[in-house]
Write a structure and sequence with these properties.
- By secondary structure, the protein is of the alpha/beta class.
- Among the domains are: about 110 residues, Flavocytochrome C3, Chain A, domain 1 (Alpha-Beta Complex), CATH 3.90.700; about 140 residues, Methane Monooxygenase Hydroxylase, Chain G, domain 1 (Up-down Bundle), CATH 1.20.58.100.
- About 35% of the residues lie in helices and about 15% in strands.
- The N and C termini lie far apart (about 60 Å).
Length: about 575
């Protein structure tokens, strides 16, 4: 792309800017307009708000709900055990108290919730209720439109705008024509989701996007915060999903909805026999992946969810359940002439992801969802400290962030920053964003394409930072080598070339992933224990160590110096 054909820059203003139109972002937008209809609320979304983020294909259950007999305190205690003793209890409690409220709200928007004969929600496990959720995302998007928020689809965020220590907006570019868009705002809420694509996935080649977490959530929300100096927490508590092999379909539908036990190649229900009780309680979520990984390592693999014996009616119900969230597995069974009633379904662990919904990687926030940067708020998978949020917890956080942002800008009568005094900073961001677009085949020096950089990043992380190839194990020597190789890759990214707006998007996805990967390795090096087996397994520190590590590992990045500050925050037990 030649300099004389570089795209134009456009200016937009809003009272509240929401970055990311997924689960949390939609709720934040609708809530802000509900509280203050006269405020200008803008949402920018990299894809299209109707089918974006983790819920793009739907869901068949709400996985965080207080069924009769449960309380916010019992939920928090459960989450604490599931996270191996370390969570932000204040955040989890604030979520738990509003889970049912949010589900009822979205039901009023049109979400079909499955009911029992008495009209109560149909339970699926201790914290789950069943839904017909194939259209969940369009329902949320319609609520945003009805509320009167302005939506910019196909817009990829690249940088936050900061002025005198306060976040004052963001810069994004169109993935269709690469035009630059400057958004000035009194408050900014980040709802971009977590980071996939850091590690080499189970499937290769044309199937490399057949992964568990949304392949389009590439860590942009973390990266813009890191570049702006926000404090991040708990990145080392990665999430590794237990999924069906090849198709990478969810297994909760099989285990919770249809009672399929995990068995090894010998037919032994190994979770029940060897791993069901850890510390005298239910095995925490990390053990669901750690256990089959051990079975493989010790020669008892492969492992399965045993669906043999399901009646034809139950098989039909199983397929219907998957059609509400993951139709690919139904097509896979049909294409390969497979019948779950006669053949068990092989399972595997995915590559690791960084996210704050199932685990707790993300921005360090207060109970009102303020980040450490004034004017910036975080909700959903991009916010840290509160695992086990799932869909409904992200709704709660989106609502809380919106309520706080509205109150804050009203209280202090926040003024919009004048574009004139931001000129130098915006021009620097513009130059950084368009750098890959300025290169062409005539530019001197080597050329690196986004796909090449992505494959290199994933190879480094897989082999040295606890990926699939090392059965999720790592140690100080391996992580130190990962640091060195990531630093070398960072230098090579100066040669990235984008031949189209789509390439420009992919180039920045790699740039953002690399920064998140560097932060992740810092976290993994710092935490010298194995608190979450498989999620964070240090072979040189194989035991959990509450005496030294019952605290949060946090980082700040200084973009100008290229330096990292590592700190610890204390854990507070509340229930």
């Amino acid at each position: 792309m030649h300099v004389n054909t570089l795209p134009q820059t456009n200016l937009h203003q809003a009272d509240i800017l929401i970055i990311g139109g997924g689960t949390a972002g939609c709720m934040a937008a609708a809530t802000a307009k509900e509280i203050a209809p006269d405020l200008a609320v803008t949402v920018i979304e990299k894809a299209h708000i109707d089918r974006s983020g983790c819920l793009a294909a739907g869901m068949n259950a709400i996985n965080a709900y207080l069924n009769p007999g449960e309380t916010p305190e019992s939920f928090t205690q459960f989450v604490r055990n599931d996270a191996c003793g370390l969570i932000r209890e204040d955040l989890v409690l604030s979520i738990a108290g509003r889970l049912n409220e949010m589900v009822a709200k979205v039901e009023s928007w049109g979400l079909p919730v499955v009911k029992d004969a008495d009209g109560s929600y149909k339970r699926r496990g201790r914290w789950n209720v069943e839904i017909f959720g194939e259209s969940l995302k369009p329902i949320l998007a319609e609520a945003v439109r009805k509320a009167g928020a302005t939506v910019f689809n196909r817009m990829a965020v690249a940088d936050l705008i900061c002025h005198e220590g306060r976040v004052a907006g963001a810069i994004a570019f169109s993935v269709r024509d690469a035009s630059l868009h400057v958004f000035l705002a009194k408050a900014v809420i980040v709802c971009t989701g977590g980071a996939s694509g850091l590690y080499r996935p189970n499937n290769q080649g044309s199937a490399h996007h057949k992964i568990w977490y949304s392949p389009f959530n590439t860590g942009a929300g973390y990266a813009i915060g890191l570049r702006a100096g926000a404090e991040m927490t708990s990145l080392e508590m990665r999430f590794i999903a237990l999924r069906t092999r090849d198709v990478i379909a969810p297994t909760g539908t099989l285990a919770l909805g249809f009672g399929a036990p995990q068995v090894n190649a010998l037919g032994v229900e190994f979770m029940k026999e060897n791993y069901a009780q850890v510390g005298g309680e239910r095995a925490p979520t990390p053990w669901r992946v750690y256990a089959p990984t051990r079975e493989y390592a010790e020669g008892r693999g492969p492992c399965f969810l045993d669906t043999r014996g399901l009646s034809p009616e139950r098989v039909r119900a199983l397929k219907e359940a998957y059609l509400s969230m993951y139709p690919g597995i139904v097509l896979y069974w049909a294409a390969n002439d497979l019948d779950p009633a006669h053949e068990p379904i092989e399972i595997c662990g995915t590559e690791p992801y960084v996210m704050g919904g199932h685990c707790q990687a993300g921005y360090w926030i207060d109970e009102q969802r303020r980040t450490t940067l004034p004017g910036l708020y975080a909700a959903g998978d991009v916010s840290g400290g509160a695992p086990y949020k799932f869909v409904s917890g992200c709704w709660v956080e989106g609502a809380i962030a919106a309520e706080t942002a509205v109150a804050d800008i009203m209280d202090v009568r926040t003024m919009m920053v004048d574009i004139g005094i931001l000129g130098d900073g915006i021009e620097a961001s513009r130059a950084r964003i368009l750098a890959p677009y300025r290169r062409d085949s005539q530019t001197p020096g080597p050329v690196v394409l986004p796909q090449e950089a992505e494959e290199r990043l994933q190879k480094i992380m897989d082999e040295y930072a606890g990926g699939l190839s090392s059965a999720y194990q790592t140690n100080k020597a391996m992580l130190t080598m990962a640091e060195q190789k990531l630093d070398a890759l960072e230098k090579q990214l100066t040669y990235l070339m984008a031949r189209s707006p789509h390439d420009l998007m992919q180039a920045h996805e790699v740039i953002d992933r690399l920064l998140v990967a560097q932060a992740l390795v810092k976290h993994m090096l710092t935490r010298e224990e194995t608190r979450w087996p498989a999620f964070h397994s240090r072979s040189d520190f194989p035991e959990r160590n509450d005496a030294d590590w019952l605290n949060f590992v946090n980082t700040r990045y200084n973009k100008e110096r290229g330096s990292w500050h590592i700190s610890r925050r204390p854990y507070t037990k509340m229930v």
